[in-house]
Amino acid sequence: MSGKHRKVAYYPGCALEETGHAYNRSTKELGKALGLELVELENWNCCGAMEVKNLDPKLQTYLSARNLAIAGKMGFDTVMAPCNGCYHNLKKAEYDLGHDAGSREVVERLSQKAGHETYEAGGVSTIHALDWIKEAIGEDGLKNRVENSLKGLKIANYYGCMYTRPRHIFPEKDKGPGSESTSKPHFMDDLLAAAGADCVEFPLRTACCGGAHTLSDSDISTKLVLNLLTTAEACGAEVIATECPTCHTGLEMHQVRAEKVFGRKTRVKILYFTQLLGMALGLSARRVGVQENLSDASDLLRQKGLG
Amino acid sequence: MPIHEKSLIRPENLAIHEDLTIEGVDVSGHWSTFIKSRAVTDYNEAMEQEIAALPGGEYIHRCWQCGSCTNSCTVNAVNPDFNPRYWIYLIRLGMEEELLRDKDIVWQCVSCNKCTYACPRDVNPEGVMKATAHWLELKGHTDQKPSMAFDEIFSAQVFATGKIEEGRIIRQFFARTGQSLFQDWLLALARGLAKRLPVGLLARLGFAALFRPRTSGWGRAQAAMAEYLGEQQAARRSALGIEEGAKR
Predict the structure, then answer these.
(1) What is the CATH number of the domain that holds B77?
(2) What does the alpha-carbon distance between residue A90 and residue B243 come to, in Å, rounded to a whole number?
């Protein structure tokens, strides 16, 4: 435990206010249980998600930069975003504003017209909820606090696209031992293993769930998700652990859609890694929002003596 | 996965000889190395520059055709006709008619960024796919595709309130694309959730639907973004030689 990130700015983002609320709830509960303080950004806005960039990429940079500026104004140098989309967009804004004069010009102009501070590159840096736990508590810190080990639970860790790609916006990754890898990320594996889980070798950890087109091209999304679900099952997983609300909801939705539309039933359960860590620390299933998931994992959790 | 280049040769361009002997060797029949010769004269020499003028397309000129994008592509694994390398090749040569054969699938790029990760030349193939899909729509070659409708509905909410409300987006998107909200799988999802009765979550979703979540004091940001987007869209139309006031 390094004592890093004891108190950070918290950017939940839009999805965590609604369909991804279980992730929001479990992240906050996990922080509380570990003695880590989260201070929500005041009056934040949408980061642009995967859509605004398709109208104009620099507008997305502005939307994300506004949130970074708020963190700076509140006196923070670190903002933690649990959603892969938010995390990715804030990281991309940091990168673009540090490297591209055109982006800086647009963000400066829009921030002035909107009447708020302009984010200066390097002022605030974004971390993911995985970095937060890994760096503030670490595997050893977690091991010491585990009350209800996940022992026996076979987990496939699914990281998705936005956590590692494209690699140039994540300068702190791929820095050798101890750092996160963009080709084979392992932070979630490390943390869940420390909580007693049996993490299976899951080759599709950074494959795409089709989240960007989850409603606009549902058949392709269902095929991509079905591929993830059946592979996880073939790897022996009982649970897929997620760290992104879009991936999580996509997996849940298309698991049902695969059964209803293509007649392909899969049994693997889908849980946020924060829910799993929370239960390992002795929090109840209800406390970490398992009832708010679309994928009903209650039977499995009871059977494993969790929740 | 290898690139199946032979799949790019259409059957009508294959030469089949009923009776052909070359230097004593009988090469009759379906022989895929015989491709009918043809002269292409209708190059669209402006196409590469036009796509480069749209966001995401800026670095298309860097491509040296290694095929890493297509090799790594998520959609290509589902549909082999989805071929970023080939489309970049066609665009750079100006072979518009060939590109238009695939005009109805270009929009299906899921932005997973595997291509951008793999590309040794920083072409940003993901951006090129978006630029190409926009080019096809702006030029009137395609109608608005579902993903573009989704982008518009989603962004309009962000511009209007600073945040999104998921229920509203789903309702508007299904209405615009003429789909029913009462589909088997959606109903099954709703039933599953209702069974466990997460009262807090349901109250939260209901509250968000009634009182749209919003960022306070958003008006000035909204006006600044609208002005900027208007300028950008006008500049794009002008780069593509589209008259002001023309459709989209």
Answers:
(1) 1.10.1060.10
(2) 36
